[in-house]
Amino acid sequence: MVSRRQFLWGDFKARRTSQRPPWARPEEIFRAECSGCGECIAVCPTRIIVQSGRYPEVDFKHGECTFCGACAATCKDGALRRDACPDGPWAIKAQIAENCLAKKGVECRVCGDPCPVAAIRFSPRLGGPPMAEVDTGSCTGCGACVAPCPVAAISLA
Ligand code: SF4
Ligand code: SF4
Ligand code: SF4
């Protein structure tokens, strides 16, 4: 039996952690507008949109966003709206955590190749393998680097 407090806390955490599909309205508006129809999930060619409770969210463990626009084009509820996002689909950027193999002194460049805009740089350093660093200016937040990382060190925020 889940208490009301536990339910609300779980709901609060979901609000804080869910990455909505690209061109999503701000969270409160999104939750008001989205009917949970699942159309965006059905049309995503890379299958990165998944159902999370009533609403859709992006899980980059399944792949990357190509910014094809199919999810927003199919949304009839106004929860995903390209015309309401003049600054682009989203503002998330890749972040590399401390468990990155290169940061721990082990040679690894796995995340560099899948990045379509070469936003992950490997800076030479003395006494260790090149350090993986994200150029946040060019990172589009596509998530292509997330799944290939052997130690799940990359997240989008
Ligand atoms: S823009 Fe295309 S690839 Fe990206 S989440 Fe929407 S449907 Fe999927
Ligand atoms: S793939 Fe993962 S472990 Fe390897 S350099 Fe990139 S972030 Fe680090
Ligand atoms: S999220 Fe996409 S653009 Fe950003 S570093 Fe990863 S692969 Fe490159």
Question: What's this model, at a glance?
Answer:
With 157 residues, the protein is α+β, with helices and mostly antiparallel strands. It has helices at 4-17, 27-33, 39-43, 70-74; strands at residues 49-52, 55-58, 94-96, 120-125, 128-134, 154-156.
Protein model, in words:
- The chain is of the alpha+beta class.
- The chain has 2 domains: 4-84, 2-Layer Sandwich (Alpha-Beta Plaits), CATH 3.30.70; 92-157, Alpha-Beta Plaits (2-Layer Sandwich), CATH 3.30.70.20.
- The protein has 4 helices and 6 strands; from the N terminus they run H-H-H-E-E-H-E-E-E-E.
- It has a two-stranded antiparallel sheet with strand order 1-2.
- Strand 4 (120-125) and strand 5 form a beta hairpin.
- The model is unreliable at 1-16 (pLDDT under 50).
- One iron/sulfur cluster binds next to loops.
Domain module count: 2
Task: Supply Rg.
Answer: 18 Å
| Total beta strands | 6
Using the coordinates shown, work out and report the CATH topology of the largest domain.
Alpha-Beta Plaits
Tally of separate helices: 4
Q: Structural class of the helix and strand makeup?
A: alpha+beta
Question: What is the CATH architecture annotation of the largest domain?
Answer: 2-Layer Sandwich
* Overall body shape: elongated
Distance between the termini: 33 Å
Name of the CATH class of the largest domain: Alpha Beta
Unreliable segments (pLDDT under 50, ≥5 consecutive)? 1-16
Mean of residue pLDDT values: 91
Taken as a percent bin, the fraction of beta residues is: 15-25%
